[in-house]
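Re: your question about Ku70/Ku80 N-terminal alpha/beta domain-containing protein

S., sorry for the slow reply, the queue was backed up all week. Below is exactly what I fed in.
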Amino acid sequence: MPEWESYYAKGEEDEDEENEDGDAEPGEFRYGGRDSLIFLVDASKQMFKSTADDDLTPFDISLQCIRSVYTSKIISSDHDLLGLVFFGTRESKGSETFKHIYVLHDLDTPGMSL
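Result:
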């Protein structure tokens, strides 16, 4: 049975220390990429109906969560990519092939423009 190899960094060793082939040793973790996260938000009529307990709609709660993640990513990581897409919309933007899809923010590094 072949050994499982992982290439994610443990952070204990210097990333320049690799074997002769340039590959990570089995069990040695390496990770040098960036995270990408696309938020897909339902924008249908049901999302705008508030519950009896709260004045906030599910759509409002979704946007609050997304705003929190965007703020956190702006502060903590300048390498990660975020995107925001609404589906179930009347209008379409950013997708010529699909109706009722509205791309508010393409997959890009988060900034103050949103």
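Confidence is low (pLDDT under 50) at residues 4-9. The chain has one helix and three strands.

Happy to talk it through on Thursday.
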